[in-house]
Design brief:
alpha+beta; 2 domains; two-stranded antiparallel sheet; three-stranded mixed sheet; about 140 residues; Dna Ligase, domain 1; about 20% strand; Arc Repressor Mutant, subunit A
Amino acid sequence: MTHCHTIIDELRKRGFRITPQREMIINAVAHNPQHITAEEVSERLQEHTQAINIATVYRTLDLLWQEGFACRNDLSEGKIIYATFQHGPHIHLVCRKCNRIIDADVKVLNSLRDNLISNYQFRPNLDHISIFGICADCQA
């Protein structure tokens, strides 16, 4: 069973109705090799059908995020990206000056995760986050 069908089956088990539009949106996100914005999902699907509007795309992406099947990150300037967790854990380091995005290994957050668990009894999801700052080139 493909990754998108696993998500669809699990949503059905949880009582969510899977319309043809939802299925197309889930397929578009699950089969995209990179992060994708709602607008990009909408544009890709508009090439095949006019039956999906941007509001439906946003609602479906929000459902995937709320139900734990996708992550969403703010990369500044209103650019929200989505990916299913099949994409793998990583950190986006986003430069506030040039908007450059550097991918970093999540292992650098292990001590933070351990600290939050032990000191605050809070179990964070740090598998896919954005951290804003200034890159080396802009600091120079």
